[in-house]
DNA sequence: ATGAAAGCGCTAACAG
DNA sequence: CTGTTAGCGCTTTCAT
């Protein structure tokens, strides 16, 4: 180590000083610290990673950073990481399973200490790779568990009940639902929760009022267009997430109708949007707790803190 | 290498196969590939990083991921990185200089191959550290250059001219401006561009119409509150970015006034918000070009592609 | 209280 | 065409 020679010590001593070992004579430590500052010495993280297989880096995989829910999540997630001196490797899948596979591979190469996977694409292959390499993995709303695989699930039942009750109090009876993408994914849970909530509220579910979206604005738009084409329309709509709500809203406005006069729209994320009624389902606290759950499972945050 | 023995070759050969060297007999290569797949072998990136000092990772530092401009930027940035098999280390400063310093340090430890710094906090010390370690650094709108330091600047003059001309055509004469944070930062450029644009349009600049914000919704709100308290009000407002515009909008609505009836508001980022007039200044193309500029300077993208 | 040395996994140079 | 080896920087054990 070239640097150590300048300080007149061995690299071992430098290492000890940097890691705050108390085995170094204060005078020596002080001298080393001064040289570190003078020479702007920065250690090589990769050497430590190589030696110990830990990278102090966590991977975060999200489907779509354009969905305002995710920036808020990222913010909390990163903040917790930073507090623990960990870095965040972030990647977007854009809903492409192949991108997700690449991303996971790259994260394994970088030896991340854990992965939070918020993308719903149910590709089991890359997930198995993660488990095989014993990298803690936390998914969201997949409702699948396995050794090395945790899942943080949202309590849809309660959220949907809140939303439906809220609409019922506003005297809505004909309530529709615009879900997430078709297929055997998360969205099922939400639809089911919606149907159950309607039953609990003694309201009838009209199948024509249940539409499929894609978690994005476009999905909300096309679903709402379908709804407007119906002979009998619902008077209120729940949506799988807030982007879907925004899309629906746009179509409503484009057609000269208005919220809340002609329709009530309830989103499902508590994104910061005015003019719309939200049950605070994913409120900041819940959000932070979710993050904490993710990181607890990954083992970097203790159960209490 | 334990793994290499299973395949009956040396680690060097495995390395050659992985890196696509043509010095390996096809039969051998095939056999190695099969074992790689069977054993789900994933190389240790940190070993390569240690050997060559390159990590194939780029750092992206932003002030506030809650500002919708940044997710859109991140998306483009990451997409270009992924195309080049690079990873993204992302960090938020939340406008805290100390966070920025920590972040940069951590990125140096991780031996990132380049840093894109979109946060405006003008702390020269951490920036000097980056330059000292010869890590390519690209800033945005700092308008400062140095060896190893590039800057991608936005053409405010043109944007402001577009905006002012647009408002003038709508017959506005009393146009105000809500800027970014106070102090000797970027926002200066924008204010100056605004004043110049007004002059070019032969419109008078009323100092009372020029207000300070903070690039966030709250800043737009308080500045707009001040504006509403004025005896003579402007009829149109330009804002430093879109969040500021949203804040102003909120206050306008809260006071029973409306856009565009009582005020015209023009934001400055082209975020996806309806109901508001935007000159497409940071349109997707411009955005991508900006990213490309950032990455070109960092050396991972060629001048033409 | 400090130094010497080994070893983490990879790859380029060299030897065969 | 393939194997051997050195060395990247760090930390820890073992000497001293």
From TrEMBL, chains A, B:
CDD domains (alphabetical): HTH_LacI, PBP1_LacI_sugar_binding-like
Matching Pfam families: LacI (PF00356), Peripla_BP_3 (PF13377)
Keyword field contains Phosphoprotein: no
Cross-referenced InterPro entries: HTH_LacI, LacI/GalR-like_sensor, Lambda_DNA-bd_dom_sf, Peripla_BP_I
Molecular function in Gene Ontology: DNA-binding transcription factor activity; transcription cis-regulatory region binding
Residues of the HTH lacI-type domain: 1-52
Gene3D superfamilies: 3.40.50.2300, lambda repressor-like DNA-binding domains
Keywords: DNA-binding, Transcription, Transcription regulation
The protein's name: LacI family transcriptional regulator
Origin species: Edaphobacter aggregans
């Amino acid at each position: 180590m070239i640097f150590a020679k300048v300080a007149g010590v061995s690299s071992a001593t430098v290492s000890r000083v940097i890691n705050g070992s108390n085995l170094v004579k204060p005078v020596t430590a002080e001298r080393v610290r001064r040289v570190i500052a003078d020479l702007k010495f920065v250690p090589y993280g990769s050497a430590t990673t190589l030696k110990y297989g830990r990278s102090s880096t966590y991977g975060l995989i999200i489907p779509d950073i354009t969905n305002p829910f995710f920036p808020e999540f990222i913010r909390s997630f990163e903040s917790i990481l930073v507090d623990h001196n960990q870095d965040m490797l972030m990647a977007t899948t854009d809903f492409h399973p192949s991108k997700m596979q690449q991303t996971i591979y790259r994260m394994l190469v970088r030896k991340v200490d854990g992965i939070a996977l918020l993308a719903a694409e149910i590709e089991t292959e890359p997930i198995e790779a993660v488990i095989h390499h014993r990298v803690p993995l936390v998914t969201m709303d997949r409702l699948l568990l396995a050794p090395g695989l945790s899942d943080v699930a949202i309590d849809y039942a309660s959220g949907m009940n809140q939303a439906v009750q809220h609409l019922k109090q506003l005297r809505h009876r004909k309530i529709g639902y615009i879900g997430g993408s078709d297929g055997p994914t998360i969205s099922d849970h939400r639809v089911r929760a919606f149907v159950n909530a309607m039953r609990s509220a003694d309201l009838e579910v009209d199948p024509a009022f249940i539409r499929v979206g894609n978690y994005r604005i476009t999905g909300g738009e096309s679903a709402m267009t379908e709804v407007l084409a119906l002979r009998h329309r619902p008077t209120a709509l729940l949506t799988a997430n807030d982007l879907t709500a925004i899309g629906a809203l746009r179509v409503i406005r484009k057609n000269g109708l208005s919220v809340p006069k002609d329709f009530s729209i309830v989103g499902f994320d508590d994104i910061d949007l005015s003019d719309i009624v939200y049950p605070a389902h994913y409120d900041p606290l819940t959000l932070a707790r979710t993050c904490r759950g993710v990181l607890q499972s990954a083992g970097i945050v203790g159960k209490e803190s």
